[in-house]
Amino acid sequence: MKKPSSKKPPAADSSRDTRPQIRVGLLEGYEKISLRVNGPFAVENLKGETLRPMAPSNLKWRVRVEETVPSQFIYSVLVTTFADKEEAIALAENLEKEGSHAYVRSLGNPVEVQGNILRDNTRYRVQVGNFENSDDAEELLELFMDDYAPRVVRELMRRVTGKVEFFDAKLEESWVSDDGVRIIPADLTVETKIHSVRVGTGFRWETEEDRSYSGIVEIRLDHDGKLSAISEVPIDVYLRGVVPSEMPAGFPHEALKAQAVAARSEVLAKLHTKHLNDPFDVCGTEHCQVYAGVTQEDPRTNEAVIETSGEVLMRDGILMDAVYSAVCGGHTEDAARVWASPPINAAEGIWCTLHDDLKKIDLTTEDGAREWILSKPKVCCNIPAKLLPVAPDYIHRHFRWEVTYNRAEFEKIIARNTGQDIGTFYDIIPLERGVSGRLMHIEILGSNRNLKIKKELNIRRALSPTMLESSCFIVDIQLDEEGLPVEITLSGAGWGHGAGMCQVGAAHMAVKGKTYQEILTHYYRSSTISRCYSLPTSNDSCE
Ligand SMILES: [Zn+2]
Ligand SMILES: [Zn+2]
What we know:
seven-stranded mixed β-sheet; binds zinc ion; Alpha-Beta Plaits; 21% helix; alpha+beta; 543 residues; six-stranded antiparallel β-sheet; 30 strands
């Protein structure tokens, strides 16, 4: 074991790079991690002190845990979140009067890029309770279900500590370091290949593959005292990895550029709002955005990222949270209504069409939603397959869809997904629809109890073995002679939450000759595209 030198490594190229750096959680829960680096690299401890000076090595390297004390958390119920402190305090006081131990937690920070503040992500959470285990908090959830979309959250009380060992396959070099190590490549062309990354954990298609990452790779203890890996890269490198998993790389070029700008805006807009207990900004799974590093890049999406480098969507001088979804179904949704903690400065719902002659129906009504869902309007995301260079089959499967369950099957799905036994299923009552026809609040009627479910994602999770395509659906129930449901059919429109840019609609607009600016200002009304950072140049003095 060698002693860390207090000297910082010689400045690599990346020290001139003042683009925002994104820390992506790649994996966690590993007993050991093995990797190979295809160029010169240094190794630092987590304090930034050099363990191994910059040099190449063809060997395989391993990291393993030596000893560890796991993180400690406390649990509480997050009732709801506000951007305004006064509103949060008012609600907490009300809940307190009603007998709950409620309090306000402030979280998040302003998002600063190259010296400019693009938006303020400080948020005020109204929370209830303080428990050592999550079960006690779970029990309180029901108190707030009718009026909010509450969930159990945990806060870090004490971060994991321990030692990890980093050594080569021939055991020629080895270091033991507190809590983790950082692998610092000479520049962004050097790749770190992590072997046997588990892909699709929790799904049937779980498999292992090697994945390569450019930029810094940090291997450190996760909360359970196992190993995790984090990739630290300039935002454009991150986007080169995520854009092809967010939109098919064979989509028209202007649509890919629109996607790159939307994804860049969303990533920056959500900084300091997710993974608040974790030492990274975003994770590399569907929860945030799928990031598989260099392995996943495609020259066509790379070009879209490079051509739009630094460009983001602004509205009223504030960076937009430019959410997007696959197929809106014909009308996009108000982003403010989709999430329990509404994204600040996100898009309002619009018709997904370039023509004025579309029959405009009120989709918030039951009759309107039924007429809309059972029709196939000529909107942008209803695109003939032959018009696209690649036409994934999801477009037609999801523009309009239908799923049928028998009653017993449906009752089981509801019980498993909500944890509530409603008894015999009777009916679903729509309580509220958004502007796209998406259900935002429903009540399920059953013989044991009725159950209200709020927010589109919760509704989609509750009513499907996996996840419903969207919450824009109508319910038809076939009854037996006694008036009990036999079969339940959900007929729906669209795939995804439907807020912001409709990706298939964007592809159609691009086919029709629209530029990425036209596409973006169509889906994100009143927005402007502005460049919030510049690429590093050799003359760039970043201090
Ligand atoms: Zn995540
Ligand atoms: Zn659409």
